[in-house]
Amino acid sequence: MAKGSELRKLTTRSIRERKQTHEKIAALTAYDYVSAKLLDASGIDIILVGDSLSNVFQGNTTTLPVTIDEMIYHTKAVQKGVQRALLVTDMPFLSYQITVEDAVRNCGRVMKETGADAVKLEGGSAIIDVVRRVTEIGIPVMGHLGLTPQSINVFGTYKVRGTQADEQKQIIDDAQRLEEAGVFSIVLEKIPAALAKQVTEHVSVPTIGIGAGPDCDGQILVINDMLGLTEEFHPRFIRRYADLGKLIRERVKQYVDDVRSAKFPDKNESY
Questions:
Q1: Whole-prediction pTM value?
Q2: According to a count of CB atoms within 10 Å of the terminal CB, is the N or C end of the chain lower?
Q3: Active site residues
């Protein structure tokens, strides 16, 4: 690798090329400037402004309530902290499912107003026409199959998808159709590892797994989950790299105690 190349801005093309070079893709979510700046400086490949902000930032029980205006607001903040990573924005529920024209308009608005590099759309066969048209006009699309949280009211549960033969075939078919429609990568969420391996082998674009085993071309997690900030949420696919929830509580308690006991501020912390 040439000197300084680690600072080169990643593009959808360079992400696609990882499939051929077999270099794994590391992705995380971010919802604010500070987090994005830290992730970018740490060498993350893809930063996703996920509609999961509905859960971890707004406190909702599903991703459905978040609006396109809110996604734009958070993406604009994140973009200011990103120099190297590929920045992708989730298109929220009903911003692309009604008509192709609405999808083009909303995806275009996100790209124009935020500086994002790409958008992410959930679903397979039902949105193929949308994906095709959006990519045709020059907007890169990341696909998303398996457990698609915007469809939670149809699924009725967050259990593993693709455990039955018919659904497995559908997911493979949908992945191939998404590739043909022009996506540059596909998120595979909460499907059996063996199925994710099959999908990865059947498409020429990178697969990014979350709860989909080790054979995907990359992995993504929600930053709040992997840092231990969402303490009540602990499915098996999350590896906690820190316990910041506990640490923050301890440090805030110490601060409260110091203020109440007049230990803070001391003379060195005063003017």
A1: 0.95
A2: C
A3: 189
